[in-house]
Amino acid sequence: MNILPLGLAAGLIATTASADQVSIALDWTLNTNHIGLVVAQQKGFFDEAGLQVDILPYSDSASTALLAAGAVDFAYMTSLGFMSAKAGGADITALWVTMQREAGRLVYNSENRDITRPADLAGKTYAGFGSAWEDALISTMIRNDGGTPEYDTVTLGTGAYEALATGAVDFTLEVATWEGVNSELLNRKQAHFTYADYGVPDQQGGYIGTQSGMLADEPDTVRAFMTATQRGYEWAAENPAEAAQILIDNGDFPNEDLVRGSMRVIDAGGYLTDGTTPVGQIDAQRFSTMAQFLYDSGVLRDADGQPLTWPGDVSNWYDQGWMAN
C-alpha cells in the first residue's frame, strides 16, 4: 500500500499530477471511514484504472488545507472541514460522501441519574474538541428540548472519553462507528442522544474532494480515481468482514477487534449504503440543509472571524458527474 511518510506530505509539488499518479490526504489516522480506499488499493481497482495512488497519512496539516493549497490531488475531509473551507473561498469541490447518515452522537454516563434528556445538560460539564460546531450542535439540542443552553466546556480532545468514563465530565460527542465501538469493547456504561431527534439536521459525512481546477482540466483522471474508489467502498459494503481484515493487514491497529467491530456496526447500521442509494452519493437536500444550519448557527466564518451570510444555493459546492459514466 502506497502510504507516504508524514514528512513528505508538506513537500509535495503543488501541481496537478499526471493521469497515472495521484495523491489523497486523509483527515485522520487510518480507520474504517477510509476502508474503501485501502480496499481499492489492495484489490487492484486503482491499478485497473491506470492509476498509482499515494494515500497520505494524517499530519499536522489538515487534509482540506493541503487540498486547497494544491499539495494533493484529492482529500478525504470531514463535513465541517469541507464546508468551512468552501464557505471561506477555497476553490475545491466535493465528489463523494462516505457515510449515508450521521454517525455522531452525544454520549453520557448511563449511571448518571441527573441526565435523562438533553435539557438536563444545562449547567453540566462538556468535554470537547475545540470547534464552534460543537456548541451549535449541543445548544440546539438543549434548546429544542426546552432547556437553557448554558454549560461548562473543557477542551480535552480524545481524552474526553477517558474523562467521561471516570466521571470527570458529564458528556461528550462520539462517532458511533468508532469511539462508540471502543466504549463497548471497554464495557463503559454509556447512553446517548441522537442529534436529529433534537433539531440538528441529519447529515452525511466523510467527503472526498478535489480542486475545482483539476475537475475541469483532468476529468478523466478524476473519473478514474472516483470510479475505482466507489468500487472499493462497494466491495467493502458487500464484504465487511473481509474488508476489515484488509484494513487490519495494511494498518497499525493496537486493537484489531475495534476494526472488526466497527465494520460490523457500519454494516448493520447501513452507513455505507441503505440498499437503494448508490455508495458515495451526495444527497442534495441534506447537503443544503446542513450547510444552511452551519451558516445560520454562525459556525461558518470569514478570515476575520465574522459569520458568513447564507448564499442561498450551495449546489455548485459538489459535482458527481463522474458517476454518470
For this structure, what is the CATH homologous superfamily of the largest domain? Periplasmic binding protein-like II
Report mean pLDDT, rounded to a whole number: 93
Q: What composes the largest sheet?
A: 5 strands, mixed
Quick one: CATH class of the largest domain? Answer: Alpha Beta
Count of helical stretches:
13
Task: Quote the CATH topology of the largest domain.
Answer: D-Maltodextrin-Binding Protein, domain 2
Oligomeric composition of the shown chains: single chain
Residue share in helix: 25-40%
The secondary-structure element order is HEHHEHEHEEEHEHEHEEHHHHH
Number of domains: 2
Based on CA inertia axes, which overall geometry fits? globular
**Largest beta sheet: strand ordering:** 2-1-3-10-4
Second rung of CATH, namely the architecture of the largest domain? 3-Layer(aba) Sandwich
Low-confidence segments, ≥5 residues, pLDDT <50? 1-19
Separation of the first and last Cα atoms: 28 Å
Keywords: Iron, Metal-binding, Pyridoxal phosphate, Signal, Thiamine biosynthesis, Transferase
Pathway: Cofactor biosynthesis; thiamine diphosphate biosynthesis
Pfam family, one: NMT1
Protein name: Thiamine pyrimidine synthase
Write structural notes for this entry:
The chain has 325 residues and is of the alpha/beta class. It folds into 2 domains: 6-101 and 203-324, D-Maltodextrin-Binding Protein, domain 2 (3-Layer(aba) Sandwich); 104-198, D-Maltodextrin-Binding Protein, domain 2. It contains 13 helices and 10 strands. It has helices at residues 6-9, 35-42, 45-48, 63-68, 79-87, 132-144, 160-166, 179-185, 212-217, 219-238, 240-249, 256-268, 284-296, and strands at residues 21-25, 52-56, 74-77, 92-99, 104-109, 125-128, 152-155, 171-175, 190-193, 205-211. The strands form 3 sheets. A 5-stranded mixed β-sheet has the order 2-1-3-10-4. A 3-stranded antiparallel β-sheet has the order 8-5-9, covered by helices on one side. Homodimer. Pfam families: NMT1 (PF09084). Residues 1-19 form the signal peptide. Keywords: Iron, Metal-binding, Pyridoxal phosphate, Signal, Thiamine biosynthesis, Transferase.
